[in-house]
Amino acid sequence: MRVVLLGRDGQVGKALAPALARLGEVIALGHAEADFERSEELGRLVTALAPAVIVNAAAYTAVDRAESEPGRARLVNAVAPAQLAEAARQTDAWLIHYSTDYVFDGGKDTPYAEADRPVPLGAYGTTKLEGDLAIMRSGCRHLIFRIGWVYGAGASSFPAAMLRLARDRTTLRVVADQVGTPTAAEFVAEVTATAIARLADTAGPPAAGLYHLAPMGAVSRADFARFVLAEARRVGLDLPLGPEGIADCASADYPTPARRPLNCRLDTSRIRSAFGLDLRDWREDARRWVAETVEAVA
């Protein structure tokens, strides 16, 4: 099986490369080889590689900057995925694409299901939704996984930022009215590889379409910060800031160019049923991430 992976240098892309390698030949492309702002060239490139599966882990994810660069966000999040969908249709390949919880406005009291009406709050969510719809309308075989609160290797993720701030502070205010499910990039990669393997199931692959993907459970941003700091101390990292130093605040206290949905919880019933998955609690991956991060800097 030949798999073309796009966005190899992002958090999810870095986790996907080794996970997909177990399935066959992987051609992993970064921005230098596959420019998502030149979508016509991107489509021709992928078509020429004749993959069985296209995995698109590339996206414009700068949520606040997207408000001042909606055109660039649309090129990457909507126009380029449409070209990938056309390439998938022409080559009869499967397209695996990642969407976001930010297609919702967060006003619902319960987790969002796939059938819920998207109402994005900003340019990032709007352009991601446009990409989703383009893929759905293309006629290609596809799996779209909506994910949120993703973290992985590197200093840009939320838990990494908490550990960095904890080195020189004793108190920190963190928003407590945003609730979601921390999702490790390795978790996304693991489920993606399992799903792709199932596509070749001679007994009948799961249905193409849209699926919500997240571990089990949910937590506020503030409580996630407390969890990360408590785990860091438990595994021996000496930090001035501990969980007791995190103070709750509201999103309104820290206005940003782009509004964030307050409820980012995703209902994963459909993917668990379709793929026979027993999804683990978010804390398992978070504990592992903290332990590996602390060990790396020790």
Can you describe this structure?
The protein is an alpha/beta fold and about 300 residues long. It has a domain at about 1-155 and about 185-215 and about 265-280: Rossmann fold, CATH 3.40.50. The protein is built from nine helices and twelve strands. The protein has helices at about 10-20, 40-50, 70-90, 125-140, 160-165, 185-200, 220-235, 270-275, 280-295; strands spanning about 1-5, 25-30, 55, 95-100, 140-145, 150, 170-175, 180, 185, 210, 220, 245-250. The strands form four sheets. The protein has a six-stranded parallel beta sheet, with helices on both faces. Strands 6-9 form a two-stranded parallel ribbon. It is globular and about 55 Å long.
Q: Biggest β-sheet, characterized? A: 6 strands, parallel
Q: What would the principal axes of the Cα set say about the shape?
A: globular
H-E order: EHEHEHEHEEHEEEHEEHEHH
Relative helix content: 40-55%
- Strand percentage: 15-25%
Number of strands: 12
How far is the first residue's CA from the last residue's CA?
A: 40 Å
- Lateral strand order in the biggest sheet: 2-1-3-4-5-10
Overall pLDDT, averaged? 94
Runs with pLDDT <50, length 5+?
none
CATH class of the domain at 2-154 and 183-216 and 265-279: Alpha Beta
Fourth-level CATH superfamily of the domain at 2-154 and 183-216 and 265-279: NAD(P)-binding Rossmann-like Domain
Under CATH, the topology of the domain at 2-154 and 183-216 and 265-279 is which? Rossmann fold
CATH architecture of the domain at 2-154 and 183-216 and 265-279: 3-Layer(aba) Sandwich
Counting DSSP H or I runs of 4 or more residues, the number of helices is 9
Q: What is the radius of gyration?
A: 19 Å
* SSE-based structural type: alpha/beta
